[in-house]
Design a protein that fits this description.
This protein is α+β, with helices and mostly antiparallel strands and 249 residues long. Helix content is 41%, strand content 18%. Strand 7 and strand 8 form a beta hairpin.
């Protein structure tokens, strides 16, 4: 199977429990993640009575405007990302502060029928796609042959599980960066904002930029007040990009 778009699934979101002895006078619609961020911000000034009569989303808009992003770090969101290449995840995991990653292991998982991600730059060009497909199919065939030969070479290893691991860890070296992978990513809202500002911009690698825009759409549905200042637009290269209204929150 060939992937031309990422698949992003929300796995987990904050669950906010308001302490009975510090009730907030909430105004307007809000999600648990948004309320958690507002509660944290109001605690700093003990303004639970909401003297300015601000709705949650208005309050968080002001937080973003003033770049008081530390309160956004309390709200964590976990995403399952599929249909992306290992080239992309090599870049994604460079985002360390506020992030956690758990990725499919090529050492343990059989890639004999692996999927591949078509690089965005070649989609729609039949000649380029054919050249790329020929190379990934050849690499996969080499992987299958190597695993088979290595299983035979290490036949003296009593544990079949360990033998498979030895074979796959060696054979995976021929698989291309376009091999599809799956990864669970957890980050707080502030860290997600930083990642999105960097990776959804026009200067980012096309595949991770495409993913960043897809993640932004998920987060804008899930916690609009935390990501409402991001604008998705069509850039000069005719591909979608995004920019933040409030930088380095």
């Amino acid at each position: 199977m060939l992937h031309t778009e990422p698949i992003v699934t929300l796995l987990a979101r904050p669950a906010f429990t308001e302490p009975a002895h510090l009730p907030v006078r909430w105004l307007g619609e809000s999600t648990d993640g948004e309320r958690l961020a507002e509660f944290a911000g109001r605690l700093c000034y003990m303004s639970q009575a909401n003297p300015a009569d601000r709705g949650t989303r208005e309050y968080l808009e002001n937080i973003k405007r003033q770049a008081h992003g530390s309160v956004l770090e309390h709200a964590n969101y976990s995403l399952l990302v599929e249909g992306v290449s290992r080239a992309l995840t090599h870049e994604l995991v460079r985002h360390r502060a506020g992030f956690a990653f758990s990725q499919l292991s090529q050492r343990y998982v059989d890639e004999s029928e692996a999927n591949f991600v078509v690089p965005p730059a070649i989609i729609g060009d039949a000649e380029l796609e054919a050249t790329w497909r020929e190379q990934v199919e050849s690499a996969q065939a080499a992987y299958v042959a190597l695993v088979e030969a290595l299983m035979a070479r290490y036949s003296w290893v009593e544990s079949r599980v360990h033998r498979r691991k030895m074979a796959r860890e060696a054979a995976r070296g021929v698989l291309p960066n376009s091999t599809e992978t799956k990864i669970v990513v957890t980050a707080n809202a502030r860290a997600w904002r930083t990642m999105l500002e960097l990776r959804a911009g026009e200067g980012a690698d096309l595949e991770i930029r495409r993913l960043a825009v897809a993640i932004l759409r998920v987060m804008q549905r899930e916690a609009p007040a935390l990501f409402s200042d991001f604008e998705i637009y069509v850039a000069d290269d005719r591909r979608e990009a995004a920019r933040a209204g409030f930088h380095k929150v």
